[in-house]
Amino acid sequence: MPWNYVHVASIQGGSGRQVLTGPAHLNTVLVNTKGSGGNTVTLFDSAGSGTCTTIGIIDSTASVMGGFDLAYDILLKRGLLVYSNTGVGPDLTVVYG
Predict the structure, then answer these.
(1) What does the CA dihedral 51, 54, 59, 64 come to, rounded to 10 degrees?
(2) pLDDT digits (tens, 9 = 90+) for 3-52
(3) What gap in Å lies between CA 97 and CA 91, rounded to an integer?
(4) Dihedral class, residue 34 (left if φ above 0, else alpha if ψ from -120 to 50, else beta)
(5) What count of other Cβ atoms lies within 10 Å of the Cβ of residue 24?
(6) Superfamily covering domain 4-96
(7) Which among 77, 76, 27, 79 has a CA at the least distance from the CA of 48?
(8) What are phi and psi of 40, to 5 degrees?
(9) Where are the domains of the chain?
(10) Which of 19, 41, 81, 86 is deepest in the core (most CB within 10 A)?
(11) Distance CA 86, CA 40 (A)
């Protein structure tokens, strides 16, 4: 399967960004640069309104060397919403097909 990617940078705490719309295969989320201010990011299978399913919560300030990647390999039914809960969100690359 050919993979595509989208870059998501520094979403401010208390806001989100609709990254993908419609069904898709979420392969990997790469955390390129850590967030700050105790940031966590929640990933939702969501079209932006109505029904949403939590995929996972990322502690983007985790103590790691350099960046890190999270392999999901799941099918999204509605799309992908990335929501920054607090602080300043990380620099992410979302890989999907």
Answers:
(1) -130
(2) 999 999 989 999 999 999 999 999 999 999 888 888 899 999 999 877 89
(3) 20
(4) beta
(5) 20
(6) Galactose-binding domain-like (2.60.120.260)
(7) 79
(8) -125, 150
(9) 4-96
(10) 41
(11) 6
Given a contact cutoff of 8 angstroms between Cβ atoms, the answer to whether 13 and 88 are in contact is yes
Residue 77 has, within 13 A of its CA and on its CB side, a CA count of: 6
- Look up residue 49 and give its two tokens: 């309104």
**SS3 state of residue 67:** coil
DSSP codes of every residue in 3-47: -EEEEEE-PBTTEEEEEEESSEEEEEEEEEE--BSS-EEEEEEE-
Residues 6+ away with beta carbon under 8 Å from 87: 13, 35, 36, 37, 38, 39, 61
Residue type, 81: L
Give every CB contact of residue 81 below 8 A, 6+ residues apart in sequence: 16, 17, 18, 19, 43, 44, 46, 48, 52
Check residue 54 and report its DSSP letter. E
